[in-house]
Structures are given as structure tokens and as C-alpha cells.
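[09:14] KT: can someone run the structure on this one? pasting the chain below
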Amino acid sequence: MTFRARLLALVVLAVILTVGLVTWSVAVFTRRSFERLDDQRAASLVAQFRREFDRRAGEVVSRAAGVAATESIQRMVVELSRAQPDYSVYVNLAGELAATHGLDFLQLADSDGTILSSAQWPARFGYKLESETPAAVSKAQGAFLKREELPGEVALALNAVETVRAGERNFSIVAGRRLDKEFLASLVLPEGMRVLLYRNLEAGFSPQALIDASGVVAGAERLAPLIGQVQAEGREFASAITWSHGPETLQAIPLKGPQNNLLGVLLVASSRRELAELVGRIRWAGIWIGGAGVLLGILLSYWVTARVTRPVEQLAAGAGRVAAGDWDAQVEVSSGDEIGTLAAAFNVMTGKLAEQRDRLVQAERVAAWRELARRLAHELKNPLFPLQITVENLQRARQQAPEQFEEVFRESTATLLGELANLKTIIGRFSDFAKMPPPQFEPVNLNEVVRRTMRLFEPQLRSEGRPAIDAALELDGSLGTIQADPNQLSGMLQNLLLNAIDAMPSGGALSIRTRRRDGMARLELADSGQGLTPEERDRLFTPYYTTKQHGTGLGLAIVQSVVSDHRGNISVESQPGHGTTFRIELPENHEPSADRGR
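[09:31] RB: done, C-alpha cells below
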């Protein structure tokens, strides 16, 4: 991955993480704040319900007392305290008093709990009160909840008991009002909140028993688990439910009677739609801000990388030119920062490299001429010594034995001519190496050159009187033609084969392989000979260096020169006792015009 891509990824990641963290933090803070506000509103609504409940309770108690203080009740208790009273006269009295005092329920009972008159159920005249006797209900403090049975339904009532004494007898007045949707409608609700009442009057869960200010609640079945928890454990519970109009949190509060029996469940519902919309807006704001940040980050990273990577790319290109041999390469210094300092240091380095190259080239030339002079002196010294001896012999024969001079002259002349021919051969070899002709490029099939050269060496590889050398060819059929000088390639291969044969005096194995690799034609020649030491391998291509007892040491130097003229490269792998492998790579699409000016 490039520096520009890494910087861009880093900036984008930083923007996304930052915006995501801020968005998440704001959303969490908003949710928590909303939940605290929601809890406060729910607590306020519950407190309002309790105040309204207490107000209604006080109102029922007051109205019950008002009924007890009426002239009709006073006259009734007096009449019924006499011997053989007529109870039928007061059968309809409760209904009249309930209508007068705005009560939904009113029952008049004797001291033993016998109903004397009932406003809500007149036919119950003479029955006993269902769950509370006058003595029991008189002990209740204030108003209380009660399950009230009616001819066609069961209702939840807020009742109060008032006792009227006449002589030795106590008469009870049980007055009450319904706890229904009218009661819920009287509550002042904050925006986004509603209150529901479940009247726990039947066994199990009844959807019809759940009401709000408008009547029976639609979809009441979804609240059955929450109400079931309250019914089972008799304590408050909270839950969250998502309706079609949005999510809500509900707090369920049990409503119990005087005997701690569950008679109803108050549900305070708070809409979370505003929270959901707010969180959604926050998220979308985060997405838009994040997108803008990413776009800004891309532009910023592009600007930064343009200022950073362009000089770096120029430095890389300059380094590439230096690696290709252009040691005079310079880069533009366009800033005074660290990159500019680096560019200036690069220019100073290439300048010093050029100076060192010139000094190195000069030193190499001097060393090459010295080595050439040493080798030339060594090669010329060998034939000069016999020439000197021959001349001295001629001088001694002339002075000491004139009669034998003719015979000595003939022998010495032959010796002189042989050594002069040897000198001529040595000088010719030096001259040939000094004026290696440039290659004449043409399309050449490397495999065919290998086959033709191997046919020339087959008699030598299998000659009688010397150990045989097994030769194996592995030629890549997909290798096409290359631009090369066929004669120079053949001579190069002959030199390598001669070295391989000399390295295997006891016989061995020789393999030649060709193949294509990365646009190059590769030639590998491996022998199983004695191998080379690291020092011998390092000096192998040095002119006039040889490990053999005979030879000029120019063969491998000529091989390296041919490979270099063909824009190729040559390498050697060898270890003592493990043979030697020469590896040559030549370009398949070499342009001859690049070498004609050499």
C-alpha cells in the first residue's frame, strides 16, 4: 500500500472513529437525559394520580357524610329503630339519595349488614353486603377500592363508609363512585404521556378490562405480560413496548383494596417517539458530518500527500536513475522542510558519488593497465628466455667451435623461429581481446545454438581413452527467438563447455537448460566437477586469471564481455566438491540499435 493510500485510510478512519464516538456519546447522553426526564414525568403523573385519587376519596367520604346527615336518613334510622318497622318504605331511598349527591354507588345497610336499599342494584334488598360487614368497613380509614358487582357488569368503585347510630343500632351508608375512563380523563397529562387502568375484576387477563380516557385500549393483549407480572407478584414493574405509533415505556403500579387484594393496575405510558426521532436526527447528523469530514479528510490527505509524496517520488526516481548508472542524477529542491533537506542531501550524495566514480574509474584503469602489463610481461618472459639462451649458444659456438657453428646455427634458427611464432601468437591473443568486435544482431534461436554447439563437442565428450561425460539437454520449447550475434553466442557456449570439460577430468555429468523467465531467456550450464572456492569464484571473470595449468585466462573474460554486449547478466554458483553452475540471462526483446553506437 502506498503512503498516500495509508494516509488517506488513516485520515478516513480517524474521522469515522471521531464522528462515530461523538455521535454515540451524544446519543447515549441524550437517551439518558430523556430517560431521566421520562422518569420524572412518570413520577409526576403518578403523584398527580395519587392526589386526584385522594381528592376523589375525600370527595366520596364527604358525600357519604352528606348522605348520612340528610333528613331522609335521620328519619329512616328513627323509624327503623321502632318495633316492627316497615323496611319496604325505604327500598328506593338509596337511588334517590345517590342521584341527589352525585354518587354512582350507594347502599344503606342495617347493623348486621343486611341491605336496606341499593342504588346500583335495587333487587339486592334484604341481601348481605358481599365482603364487608358494617363493623368491618367502619374501621376502614377514608375511601377504599372495592369490586362492585352490578346486574350486567362488574365495576371498580372508590367507596367510603359512614355510620349513623340510632339507639342501640348502627346503620351503615356505603357510598362510592366509579373508577373509570371519566376518572382518567380528569387527569392533566404532559405531552407524550398517557395513563391506562386495568380493572382486575376477573380471573386471568381480560382485554376489555384495560381502558384509557377514551375507552377500551386497542392492542391490549401486548400488555398482558406486564400486567401478569403485577398480578403474580403484586409490585411495580416497568417495560418498553413498540406500537405502530412509536415506542413507549410503561410503568405498572398495583392498586389494592383494604384486604391487600389486587383490584387494579395503573399503567403510566411515556412515548419514546421523540427520543427515537431525536436519536435518528443525531445519527443522520453524525452521518452527514462524518461524510463531510471524510471528504475533507480526502482533500486534506491528497494535499498533504501531494506535498510529501511528490518529492519522495522524485527522490525515488532519482535513486532509480542512480541505480541504472546515472550517477549525475539530481532532484529539485522545492521546500525548506525535512523533505527539502533530504533532497539537498541526495543531490550532495550523487555529486560525491560522481566524484568517487571518476576516481574509482581512474583507479580501475590504472589497476587494469598494471595487471595487463604484468600479464604481458609474464607471457613475453617465457619465450624470451629460450631466445636469449639460443643467441648465447650461437655466440659460444662461433667463438669456441667454429667447425660446429653450422650445425648449431641450423638448430638455433629453428628454435628462434618457433619462439618468435609463439611471441606472435601471444601478441595476437592480446590484440584479439583488446579489439573484441561488436555483436551483429539478428533473430537467433537459442535452443538451436545450444544443439549445434553440442554436436561439435559430442566426439570430445565420448572420446576413447578418457572417462565419459554424460550430457543432458533440457530446452524450453516455448522459448522463441532473441536478438543476438549467433557466432558470439556459439563462441561463448564453447568457452563454457571447455571449462566444464576441464573441470571433470574423471568424467561426470553435464546439463544445459534453457527457459523463459520475466521477459528474459535463461541459459544454465551445470557440471559435476571439482567446484570453486569463494576466492576463485570472485576472480573468475578477471582477465588473465586462470586455475588451469595451461591457458591464457581470457576465455571467461570473453564470455562476460559477450554477455555484457548483449545487455545480459551472468552469475556463477559453485562450492568445492559440488560442481559449478553458470547462469546467463539475455533479454528476449533486445533493441540492437542501442548497441551500435558503442
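[09:33] KT: thanks! Residues 3-68 form the longest helix (66 residues).
[09:34] RB: yep, looked fine to me
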